[in-house]
Design a protein that fits this description.
This protein is α+β, with helices and mostly antiparallel strands and about 220 residues long. It is built from 7 helices and 4 strands. It has 2 domains: about 90 residues, Double Stranded RNA Binding Domain (2-Layer Sandwich), CATH 3.30.160; about 120 residues.
């Protein structure tokens, strides 16, 4: 390791998320801070495989000592429900063209990871969860696409008429927001997400379900 990896903690009474500040999508939860950080390390190899072809220089930590907690945030109801809901302060930084390309590379790699696993799971009987639950494959795919539609709203845009163009619209909206350009199809919302937090949340969500599919297949 060339240096310790900065991470932030989103802490709520019953759940904590640990996320890498610069490696968006690499975010895991635990009942305690220690459990969340340990889970983050445990998933480092899986995250590395997702972005291996992107050549972004991700270095896997050998243990929790390779991580440095740089910020603790108070979680909210979303945190308790099981999703990261509070952006770290670093997500408010402006984006230049190089950083925008890096973030879109991570997001596209995350999408490809889910699509590969979903394709491989066609016709496979998925194992159930500990209480017999768990979405089947079509419902999980619909859930992921529905979440991405809501992310467009959070960015201040609307979903396209052609759902097949949804991810292209997300990328175009990210670029418009990063460059302070008008949105092609604006949607009035009280408070929009920053482009960084959008990528952070969207990459986490699609990878969380990609890894769930891997485990249940």
């Amino acid at each position: 390791m060339t240096g310790r990896i900065p991470v932030y903690l989103e802490v709520r009474r019953r759940r904590t998320f640990a996320g890498a500040v610069e490696w968006l999508g690499w975010c895991r939860a635990g009942k305690t801070e220690a459990e969340a950080v340990a889970a983050l390390v445990a998933y480092a190899d899986r995250y590395a495989r997702v972005i291996a072809r992107s050549r972004l220089g991700f270095e896997r930590p050998e243990g929790v000592d390779d991580l440095e907690v740089v910020e603790r945030l108070e979680g909210n109801a979303t945190t308790e429900l099981g999703a990261p809901g509070v952006p770290p302060n670093a997500d408010d930084r402006p984006l230049n063209a190089k950083e925008l390309k890096r973030l879109t590379t991570i997001l596209e790699a995350s999408w490809r990871a889910f699509d590969r696993v979903a394709e491989a799971a066609v016709g496979v009987t998925l194992t159930k969860g500990p209480r017999g639950g768990g979405r089947d494959l079509p419902k999980m795919v619909d859930h992921v696409m529905g979440a991405e539609e809501s992310y467009l709203v959070a960015l201040g845009s609307r979903r396209p008429a052609d759902t097949g163009a949804q991810r292209k619209t997300i990328l175009a909206t990210l670029a418009a927001r990063a460059q302070d350009k008008p949105l092609a199809d604006p949607n009035k919302v009280k408070k929009t997400w920053s482009p960084r937090f959008l990528v952070r949340r969207a990459a986490w969500h699609v990878l969380d379900h990609a890894w769930e599919l891997e485990d249940r297949s």
